[in-house]
Each structure stands twice: as structure tokens, then as C-alpha cells.
Amino acid sequence: MKAARLYGKQDLRLEEVPMPEVKPGEVLIKVKAVGICGSDLSRYTKLGPKFPEKGPLVWGHEFSGEVAEVGEGVTSYKAGDHVTACPALPCFECEYCKKGEYARCMTLEVIGAVRDGAFAEYIALPERNLVPLPKSVSFEQAALIEPTCVCFHGLYKLNMQPGDDVAVMGCGPIGLLAIQSAKVFGAKRIIAIDIMEEKLEWAKACGATDVVLSKIDDYDSARNGVLDVTNGRGVDVVIESGGTPVTSAQVLGLGCKGAKVLYLGIPYGDITIPREYFEKIGRSELTIYGAWNAIQQGFPGKPWTSVVAFLEKGMLDFSPIITHRYPLDEIEEVFKANYERKTLFGKILFFPEGVEK
């Protein structure tokens, strides 16, 4: 079968590889749609494989597909079922896993890092990682369930309330999904912040009620924009989804007294926080939340069943977020173009069976 394996920084190769072995308790899935995660781009551009000593592995972890074969002992699925899958691989044995806190697993890993992932025609995974899909939900939409679950996991942690005002810093795919998630959770006002006007247009299409064009050369522009929109109050919930050292500091200045700040982005660099912003934690009595992955009790947990239900009811729609669709055959060129910043991307999806013209 065809699959894309990561050999090193800027070294992703589409190759012919053996079909996955279906072990007892596992399910073979024919991949229908698979997306690029922001973490994929960071590994491609800066970091390379997490465990290079394991050799090149099939990459990718945001996907949907159809059950092709079930292994011995599998009882919940049959050939032809539509599924997505949680890519997380907790140990289920450490102190955190035993409490159902799987996102805190001592040895938590994901597919594509320690076992083959989904940039391929087929993938095999344990039965417990699969999530069933109603056939009314398209494979294209279902490929974005995993990153949306990341947002839901964070919002469940901070116990967001209907009527809250929310600011989302950074309008890449995770930020756009956070906007849709906040809307489903009942946000009254959603303020989207980014340095690119094009991304703010995407944010409005996803449900942002207000937008703030931040400026690279004006550190306080995000805060001032939010204060203007909220008449000097600030917001109840702040979501950092930009994943940069600057935005990771700026978000501390956007909340009202007692606001909740949720970090979803991953800044691959050291963060310097101006004193005025850092003091907001104490002086405004902020509560800071970190959210990692998308797994909770009842593995993979409530975010997964919730996102599937909202998709089925039409309360989530990822169409404005998906900007590019390619056959899997073009994956090398697409990653290279993204690295060279030749195109402005939202969410990129690959289709192993090809893209309908």
C-alpha cells in the first residue's frame, strides 16, 4: 500500500509499504480522509521524528475511514462500519491512567510516533481506540473530529458556562475549531484575534462575533482590541491557540477579573512575559488551564461522543475550515509548499482514494 513516512526534518517520503498486520483485538481501517495537524508541521519543519531510533514510521493521526477487517476477539465493529479513531496511546497502567486521567499518562504517545499512523491507505488500531460514526457524517467532516476533541477537552476542563464572553488568540485550524466549539458551548460573544485579515474572515465564517487584527509591531494591540470590543471589561474565557511565544504571553492580558485562560497552542520557543501581563495572574485572579490531547474517563471519553453528536445534529460544520483537498499522492509537495509558505492554508485534507473533481 501507499504510505507517507517521516525520515527527518523536511524529509517526508511517499512509499510502498507492507499492509498493516491485524493483531487480536485490533481493527483494520481503510483510510478515507486524513488531515495535517499543526504538530505535524512543527515536526516537519523543526523537529523531525520524535523517536528516530525507531526508524521511519507512517505519519498522521487525524483521520476517518471504513472498517475493512476485524481481528480476533473484536466484537464492537464489523466490515463496512464508518469510524474515526483516537490516536492517543496511554499505558492504562500508571497511577493517572488508573484514575481515568489518560491525558496525564506517564508514557502517553500517539500514532505516527511509536506505531504507524494514518497517512496511508490502511491503518490498524486497537478496538478501544475506534469511535463509531453515523453514516450521515461525511468522512471529510469526520477527519476533523480529533482536533475538535482537543478543544472540547479543554472547555470541559475549565467548565465554560453559557453566556461567557470568549477570546480566541490565533485563527489557524485549532483556533477556528475552538471558535466553533465555544459557540456550541453557549458563548455569548466570541472575539477572534489574528495578525492576518484572511484568517479573521475564516473566523467570522466559523462563528466569531467580533474580530481583532493584532499587529506584530504592537504588542498591546490584541489587548487593546479586546478591551475596545468589551468596553474595557475583558472576556470570561481566553483560549490561546496561536502557539507562539508572543501569543502565549499576550493572552494573559485579555481576560476580565477572575477570567479563565486555556492554553491549547504549543509554543516551540522560550516565552518572555512583560511584568504588566504576568501580574494579571495575581491581580486579576486568573485561573490558568493547560489541556493536553483529547482523552478523558471512559476512554477516549466525553469529547468524542459529544463532537460526533454535534456533527450529526448539524451544530458543527467544518466546511469553512477545510481550505485544501489533495490526493495522498501529492503529500510530499504539499508539505514542502507549506514549509516554503507558498500558500495560505487552513485545514489540509488528503484522500488516499483521490479527490473528486
TrEMBL record:
Pfam families: ADH_N, ADH_zinc_N
Domain of life: Bacteria
SMART domains found in the cross-reference section: PKS_ER
InterPro entries registered for this protein in UniProt: ADH-like_C, ADH-like_N, ADH_Zn_CS, ER, GroES-like_sf, NAD(P)-bd_dom_sf, Zn_alcohol_dh
Residue stretches making up the Enoyl reductase (ER) domain: 8-350
Protein family per UniProt: Belongs to the zinc-containing alcohol dehydrogenase family.
Protein name: GroES-like protein
Organism of this sequence: Anaerofustis stercorihominis DSM 17244
